Amino acid sequence: MSSEAFEHAAAGALLLCRAEPDVVEPAARLLRERMLLAEAGHEWSVLVPEGKPWLHGDEPVDRVLTGWATALAVGSTWPVLALWWDSDRSGCTLAAGFRRTVEYVWLANGTPVGEDEALRTFAARLGLDPVLDMQSLEALGRPDTEADARARLLGLLAVLARAGVALPAGLGPGEPADRLRAVARVVPGVREVEWSG
């Protein structure tokens, strides 16, 4: 398998919305992308892309997800956190209203390449604990030879769990898009979201 083909196969993404599925669904339809929508904890929802537009255009997975997160958050009262990964990097992008999006990135080996200010902004905009949660977030921004990119995203989800995030079993960072879609399809109460206009 070529390195480019591996990167495409390994790429995956999730969109976490701090709102119930009933609230998220109308906004998600406006993306004009097929998505699977499920509950992801108290007052959280997760959107799993059915397609992989990063395979068919010039934009990598992180840019595609940033665009989707921004579109969902504009005009909404709830923030959207995009989690994305490929064979080289993983990261997260936070969009909230008309504010500038904030991104944090880790290389495949877990090396942080984001700015500490981004982590502080995540904590503030998501309403996380400024002491306990901020300490955990700051740890994700420090070198750690035992933590690869997937472990960093799992660490982020552990922090978000204290804010109510609970992803359905099998939906998690590091999985390829095809597997995420297959898992999401059998999540109880999952909804198919697509543009109907």
Helix % is: 25-40%
Contiguous low-pLDDT stretches (5 residues minimum) are 1-8
**Which structural class do you get from the secondary structure elements?**
alpha+beta
Shape: globular
Number of helices: 7
> What is the terminal separation in angstroms?
39 Å
Sheet-strand content, in percent, reads 15-25%
Largest sheet: 7 strands, antiparallel
Oligomeric state: single chain
Question: Which terms summarize this structure?
Answer:
single chain, 197 residues, seven-stranded antiparallel β-sheet, 36% helix, 19% strand, disordered N terminus
Descriptive notes:
This protein has 197 residues and is α+β, with helices and mostly antiparallel strands. It has a domain at 3-108 and 166-193. The protein contains 7 helices and 7 strands, in the order αβαββαβββααααβ. The protein has a 7-stranded antiparallel β-sheet with strand order 6-5-4-1-3-2-7, sandwiched between helices. A hairpin with a 3-residue loop joins strand 4 and strand 5. Helix 4 runs antiparallel to helix 5 and helix 5 packs antiparallel against helix 6. It is globular and about 45 Å long. The termini are far apart.
